[in-house]
């Protein structure tokens, strides 16, 4: 697990319980955990293992896979075998809807290998079958000593709960608006399902709850009330967040408010990938939310100015992008070799106005020449000017300075 940022200020976490998922702790005073989900056909064990490896190497600490049919359930052992060959060790969560009870009963290897089961109470069965099939999954979780996330989603939650809430609302002297009734139905579904799971025999410290919606304000309101009414660890995520900047902004707007209030123990950013783009983008965004808030540190991040009329050259933009990409590429190696390297701060600035000052605040900073300035780029290390770079090889020379700093300033792991 990556360390917390020293001195980071945040509200006390709401969850007093702590759940172990494989080697990862979630809840209480454990670091907030980043998770993600594959979008491969799980039955294709090679493609799924490759994507799990990509997500894990990007920094996903938990990875969820769809288990929706016999083929995908039977593929789980082969996925684990392939991951072992790739030297990837990350807890894998099984996502079950409609037929999870059947798949887990008929595929005991799958049931044993998965680190956690995710159940949607609205999709475990209809009518009289719902309670029986929910209980069967929970009994299997108890038998295999697996935690369970009870994940309610407003696109597919238990309609019987909503009907009951609507009937109760009709009896109120001043009825709630429909949004408030739906939020209450989500919360009640999660809490009643958790109570039912405990009734079957699942320990309270093996339960995580989530109530996902796709509206920022509804998500904030729902989780505030859910946190007030329980002490289970909570999984946060704006469901169906969307694509590109919309999905990033919406997820950040919702999660940042809740995390600042101490609500949330594990997060996922549910981005729709751009065509041809890597699934790992959702991991990077989740990490950057936590890191920019001062709640976790994952990788050195680059402070860079936005540019103005003094920076008509694009070189500082290219260098900032180059450095940020370089440190992300190096982190899988650095993380295994050096303690604390994720706390390194970097600055790439474009002119003399804020360049030297901002560079002095970073562990390593460079102030590039703006329009009309002398063609020289002073580099500051821990607040002191160390060297001035010139010429066409500035990017490579700056990376060398970065490599040397990491190798000499951070303690090597034994």
UniProtKB/TrEMBL annotation:
<dbReference type="Pfam" id="PF26540">
    <property type="entry name" value="GcpE_C"/>
</dbReference>
<dbReference type="InterPro" id="IPR016425">
    <property type="entry name" value="IspG_bac"/>
</dbReference>
<dbReference type="Pfam" id="PF04551">
    <property type="entry name" value="GcpE"/>
</dbReference>
<feature type="binding site">
    <location>
        <position position="358"/>
    </location>
    <ligand>
        <name>[4Fe-4S] cluster</name>
    </ligand>
</feature>
<keyword id="KW-0479">Metal-binding</keyword>
<keyword id="KW-0414">Isoprene biosynthesis</keyword>
<comment type="function">
    <text>Converts 2C-methyl-D-erythritol 2,4-cyclodiphosphate (ME-2,4cPP) into 1-hydroxy-2-methyl-2-(E)-butenyl 4-diphosphate.</text>
</comment>
<comment type="pathway">
    <text>Isoprenoid biosynthesis; isopentenyl diphosphate biosynthesis via DXP pathway; isopentenyl diphosphate from 1-deoxy-D-xylulose 5-phosphate: step 5/6.</text>
</comment>
<dbReference type="GO" id="GO:0046429">
    <property type="term" value="F:4-hydroxy-3-methylbut-2-en-1-yl diphosphate synthase activity (ferredoxin)"/>
</dbReference>
<feature type="binding site">
    <location>
        <position position="308"/>
    </location>
    <ligand>
        <name>[4Fe-4S] cluster</name>
    </ligand>
</feature>
<dbReference type="GO" id="GO:0051539">
    <property type="term" value="F:4 iron, 4 sulfur cluster binding"/>
</dbReference>
<dbReference type="GO" id="GO:0005506">
    <property type="term" value="F:iron ion binding"/>
</dbReference>
<dbReference type="GO" id="GO:0141197">
    <property type="term" value="F:4-hydroxy-3-methylbut-2-enyl-diphosphate synthase activity (flavodoxin)"/>
</dbReference>
<comment type="similarity">
    <text>Belongs to the IspG family.</text>
</comment>
<dbReference type="InterPro" id="IPR058578">
    <property type="entry name" value="IspG_TIM"/>
</dbReference>
<feature type="domain" description="IspG TIM-barrel">
    <location>
        <begin position="16"/>
        <end position="286"/>
    </location>
</feature>
<keyword id="KW-0411">Iron-sulfur</keyword>
<keyword id="KW-0560">Oxidoreductase</keyword>
<dbReference type="GO" id="GO:0019288">
    <property type="term" value="P:isopentenyl diphosphate biosynthetic process, methylerythritol 4-phosphate pathway"/>
</dbReference>
<dbReference type="InterPro" id="IPR004588">
    <property type="entry name" value="IspG_bac-typ"/>
</dbReference>
<keyword id="KW-0004">4Fe-4S</keyword>
<feature type="domain" description="IspG C-terminal">
    <location>
        <begin position="302"/>
        <end position="402"/>
    </location>
</feature>
<dbReference type="InterPro" id="IPR058579">
    <property type="entry name" value="IspG_C"/>
</dbReference>
<protein>
    <recommendedName>
        <fullName>4-hydroxy-3-methylbut-2-en-1-yl diphosphate synthase (flavodoxin)</fullName>
        <ecNumber>1.17.7.3</ecNumber>
    </recommendedName>
</protein>
<dbReference type="GO" id="GO:0016114">
    <property type="term" value="P:terpenoid biosynthetic process"/>
</dbReference>
<feature type="binding site">
    <location>
        <position position="351"/>
    </location>
    <ligand>
        <name>[4Fe-4S] cluster</name>
    </ligand>
</feature>
<feature type="binding site">
    <location>
        <position position="305"/>
    </location>
    <ligand>
        <name>[4Fe-4S] cluster</name>
    </ligand>
</feature>
<keyword id="KW-0408">Iron</keyword>
<dbReference type="InterPro" id="IPR045854">
    <property type="entry name" value="NO2/SO3_Rdtase_4Fe4S_sf"/>
</dbReference>
<dbReference type="InterPro" id="IPR011005">
    <property type="entry name" value="Dihydropteroate_synth-like_sf"/>
</dbReference>
């Amino acid at each position: 697990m990556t360390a917390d940022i020293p001195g980071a200020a945040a509200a006390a976490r709401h969850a007093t319980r702590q759940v172990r998922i494989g080697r990862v702790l979630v809840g209480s005073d454990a670091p907030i955990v980043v998770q993600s989900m594959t979008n491969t056909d799980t039955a294709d064990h090679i493609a799924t293992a490759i994507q799990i490896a990509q997500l894990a190497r990007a920094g996903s600490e938990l990875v969820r896979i769809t288990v929706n049919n016999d083929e995908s359930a039977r593929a789980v052992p082969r996925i684990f075998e392939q991951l072992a060959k790739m030297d990837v060790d990350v807890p894998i969560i099984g996502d079950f809807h409609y037929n999870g009870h059947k798949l887990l009963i008929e595929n005991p290897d799958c049931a044993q290998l998965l680190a956690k089961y995710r159940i949607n109470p609205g999709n475990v069965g209809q009518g009289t079958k719902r309670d029986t099939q929910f209980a069967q999954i929970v009994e299997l979780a108890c038998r295999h000593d697996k935690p369970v996330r009870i994940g309610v989603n407003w696109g597919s939650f238990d309609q019987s709960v909503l009907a009951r809430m609507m009937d109760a609302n009709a009896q109120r002297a001043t009825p709630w608006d429909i949004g408030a009734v739906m939020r209450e139905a989500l919360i009640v579904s999660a809490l009643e399902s958790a109570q039912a799971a405990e009734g079957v025999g699942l320990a309270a410290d093996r339960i995580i709850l989530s109530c996902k919606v796709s509206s920022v304000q509804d998500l904030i309101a729902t989780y505030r009330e859910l946190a007030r009414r329980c002490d289970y660890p909570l999984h946060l995520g704006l469901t169906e967040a969307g694509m590109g900047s919309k999905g990033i902004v919406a997820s950040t707007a919702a999660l940042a408010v809740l995390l600042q209030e101490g609500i949330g123990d594990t997060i996922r950013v549910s981005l729709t990938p751009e065509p041809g783009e890597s699934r790992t983008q959702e991991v990077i965004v989740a990490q950057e939310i936590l890191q920019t808030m001062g709640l976790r540190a994952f990788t050195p991040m680059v402070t860079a100015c936005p540019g103005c009329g003094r920076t008509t050259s694009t070189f500082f933009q290219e260098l900032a992008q180059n450095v940020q990409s370089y440190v992300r590429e190096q982190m899988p190696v650095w993380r295994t070799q050096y303690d604390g390297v994720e706390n390194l701060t970097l600055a790439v600035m474009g002119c003399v106005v804020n360049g030297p000052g901002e560079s002095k605040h970073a562990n390593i900073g460079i102030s590039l020449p703006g329009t009309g300035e002398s063609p020289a780029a002073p580099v500051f290390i821990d607040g002191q000017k160390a060297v001035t770079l010139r010429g066409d090889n500035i990017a490579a020379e700056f990376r060398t300075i970065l490599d040397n700093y990491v190798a000499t300033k951070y303690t090597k792991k034994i």
